[in-house]
Amino acid sequence: MTSISGFVFVNDMELGRKYGTRVNHTTIEIKDIDGTYTVLLKLFPNNLKSTYLLDDLDSVQSHEKKVVLKFLKPNHELLVMSDDVDKVTNFLKDLRFLNKNLILNIGESFLSNALKAFGYINNNPNRMQNFNPAHLRMIALENCYLPHLPEGIGHLTLSSLSLNGSRLNMSKYGQDLFWDWMTKDNISTSLNVLEMNSIGLNKLPFEIIHLKRLQTLSVSNNKLTHLPHFIGELPQLVTLMIDGNSLWYFPEILLDKAYKTLQIFNNRFIYLKFNKEQRGNVEFTGLQNPPKLSDVSVLSLINNSIKFKRQEIPRPLWNSYDFVCRCRLCKKLFVFDEKNQKFTFSIPKTEQMVRIESIHWQFFKCPSCVRLENINA
């Protein structure tokens, strides 16, 4: 068996998509499975993302710490960005050995232009002058100090953005500007993957509600104490990584959603108690009482998909987003009162999930439905 780990990007030439698998370090592993040499793409040791047959590997191209594997079936290119040139050298050595002994006829070259499909930027300063950022599809601003993200990022048609490990300006006024990029038309209709692992998030920014094409959200190892119900307004979300936080429950709006991958271990689901004394003090840690006069305003903003800069609306409205949910019965949006919360208990629906059993799901019924139930009781 041979393997290499690093950040991996996939160029799907059949669908014309490029996307990254930037959830920690990803592994490309080649092993003999029942006599068939198979290439495994793994996000985690027990989380298989996709598989390829080694017989379908057409060519291998490399440059410094980068390796591109080009497959015929499916028509994919995998770019592996390793952090160690020795790992790349050893991986290529093992591949040559397999190529020779299995008579695979894998082509190989060491040309830097093999990376053009992934937007590779040469160190040549003259080439940098001609670089057009509008062509960017993936950006990784990882382990950086980010006092703010330029609003212009929202004008790019990115498919993948990673902020993993970066230090953000989350002061009282720093957050006024930090999330504006999410509201821009281009990125709100193009971004498929958003990763914000280990950045000290206390709550999800409500602007994320505008990312309607988002398929993968990774916010592992943060300080989240609750998952807002507005996350249910992301219709294409199928991969959710939210392990390593302090969540007590999930919003019930996600109960019927079938995920491809769900990582929710290392939270506090098992500690939720169903007694009145603890309900008011535990489940809503970090939340404030919703400002009643703003209910109509925040619902209008969501229902009409109005995009705006955070600093353009009164600050009390920011907190209102944490109290917006859909009624369990009529499915209409309303602003809930935490005193009326109820829970159900069930196992999430997912193809791949690690170390979790049934969890609690919080739900609410709108006042109109409650009145109707009382009348019919």
From TrEMBL:
<protein>
    <recommendedName>
        <fullName>Leucine-rich repeat protein</fullName>
    </recommendedName>
</protein>
<dbReference type="InterPro" id="IPR003591">
    <property type="entry name" value="Leu-rich_rpt_typical-subtyp"/>
</dbReference>
<keyword id="KW-0677">Repeat</keyword>
<dbReference type="InterPro" id="IPR050216">
    <property type="entry name" value="LRR_domain-containing"/>
</dbReference>
<dbReference type="InterPro" id="IPR001611">
    <property type="entry name" value="Leu-rich_rpt"/>
</dbReference>
<keyword id="KW-0433">Leucine-rich repeat</keyword>
<dbReference type="GO" id="GO:0005737">
    <property type="term" value="C:cytoplasm"/>
</dbReference>
<dbReference type="InterPro" id="IPR032675">
    <property type="entry name" value="LRR_dom_sf"/>
</dbReference>
